[in-house]
Specification:
Length: 475
């Protein structure tokens, strides 16, 4: 039988220092919690000391005696050691206060080792289980990797945060936004009006970006990925940028790279692919390409990706590259772990819940692109609505933000009237108003307003940019 690692002396040193010097609590490792101690007695004692210190009260043998006595009487009424005796024993230990961090780290390290043993034993039991309903080997790897990631991220399996801690985080978040010129608290999209409406892309948020084919979903997602990565490259410490993981289930990494290169060089991706670049422009093209290669942008074009496979890759990138934004293009091309489900709505619900859990677990925003149903094409006003989300199910429910792309130019260009007619004059005037104009409809936002902003869209470069257009919306 495996002997679990622990060190009672190290735990006693931590408690002894705290009983004599409450201020030493500030020098403890941030991740240390009562559950990390080996014995129930030490867990309860550290919990009580922490409670009193955080309330601004004195934690010493006198203030803790009655609490510890009650615990000991409840756990083992026949035990010989009294609470006063044990507290006095701890208080008599002559331990320098400046060593508390080292002892605390040792306690925490031994806790991690015990958890590793526990997870390993669970993995062995799952692997030996021959039941027909038991997870297959791939699923078991995903389970273990998720558990190991949680352990490596210093997370407890069940946590409860008091309001004062949450409030402190909210104030710190507001202060960061206040200090930035853009007032963006999250990851920047690179678009001024969109950042202003959303306040940036917030950690733990699932953002759905939806639209009909040819509206520019992938182009906008690629632009956001590039803008966030570029902002991170320019100001890696205090900026609003982020390393980006882009999961492309539709386009290859090569196609994405060519698209980004075309957007920034002004040379179409088709010309770059064919090598049709002017000789005089090639040196500057090469220099820009080398600069772009430094972007913290990571592309994954694995086909037929399952939600668990995506979660595994995202965790690895978070651990290795500290990514701060995840983009999935697109939602309907993902499959659930069960695969081949006859109930597509139920399968999609599992996928969106998985993406939302991923956003919360990694504390990064996740943008998932989504198709819209054909119902849009059957209406006179083709501006999308929430009910147009294809196989909507829980997409709307799980999402923190739902955005639609609508380009009126795309539809109007297909309604060209007869040359020379009176309608032709009106059509040309209207086309001038909507030319290269894209409306981004924020149809849902948990923590902000809904409405529309406008972006300029260059179809040749598949590039969005800020727009000064103020077009009247249809009711």
């Amino acid at each position: 039988m495996t002997t679990l690692p622990y060190n009672l002396e190290a735990e006693q040193c931590v408690l002894a220092i705290l009983l004599k010097n409450n201020q030493a609590f500030e020098s403890l490792p941030d991740e240390l919690r009562s559950g990390h101690f080996y014995t129930g007695l030490h867990q309860k004692l550290f919990e009580a000391i922490t409670f009193l210190i955080k309330k601004g009260q004195l934690a010493n043998p006198v203030t803790l005696n009655q609490y510890l006595k009650s615990y000991l009487d409840k756990e083992d009424p026949t035990q010989e050691t009294t609470s006063a005796d044990y507290l006095s024993q701890l208080a008599s230990l002559m331990i320098p206060s400046f060593n508390i961090n080292d002892y605390g780290r040792l306690v925490y390290d031994l806790h991690l080792r015990r958890e590793l043993i526990h997870l390993s034993q669970q993995a062995v039991e799952r692997a030996c289980d021959q039941d027909i309903q038991a997870p297959d080997a791939s699923a078991q790897i995903e389970i273990l990797e998720g558990q190991l990631f949680s352990l490596a991220s210093h997370r407890e399996y069940q946590t409860c945060q008091d309001f004062s801690s949450a409030l402190a985080e909210a104030i710190a978040s507001a202060q960061i936004a206040y200090q930035r010129d853009s007032h963006v608290v999250g990851v920047t999209t690179g678009f001024l009006d969109l950042d202003k409406m959303l306040g940036g892309l917030h950690p733990s948020d699932l953002v759905i970006l939806a639209g009909r084919p040819s509206m520019g979903k992938s182009a906008l997602a690629t632009n956001i990925a590039f803008n966030a990565a570029l902002a991170k490259l320019k100001n890696p410490v205090k900026g609003s940028g982020a390393g980006v993981a882009f999961f492309s289930l539709e386009m290859s990494s090569l196609q994405l790279a060519l698209r980004i290169l075309g957007q920034e060089t002004g040379i179409s991706s088709d010309r770059i692919r064919r090598g049709a670049i002017d000789q005089s422009a090639f040196p500057s093209f090469l220099e820009l390409s080398q600069n772009l290669s430094r972007l913290p942008l990571f592309l994954d074009d694995t086909p037929a990706l399952t939600i668990s496979g995506l979660l595994t890759r995202a965790r690895r990138l978070k651990r290795k590259e500290s990514i701060g934004l995840i983009i999935v293009d697109y939602l309907q091309l993902l499959s659930s772990d069960r695969g081949g489900s006859e109930n597509r709505v139920q399968e999609l619900s599992e996928i969106t819940r998985g993406l939302k859990n991923l956003a919360k677990q990694l504390e990064v925003p996740v943008i998932a692109l989504s198709q819209l149903s054909r119902a849009v094409e059957q209406r006179e006003d083709k501006r999308p609505m929430l009910s147009d989300l294809r196989e909507s199910g829980t997409i709307e429910q799980d999402a923190d933000v739902v955005m639609f792309i609508y380009r009126e130019e795309y539809y109007e260009s297909r309604n060209k009237p007869q040359e020379g007619s009176e309608k032709m004059v009106l059509w040309q005037k209207h086309m001038t108003e909507v030319y290269n104009l894209a409306e981004i409809v924020i149809a849902k936002q948990r923590h902000g307003p809904i409405g529309s902003i406008f972006l300029h869209f260059d179809g040749q470069k598949t590039k969005f940019s800020n727009s000064t257009a103020k077009k009247d919306l249809k009711s």
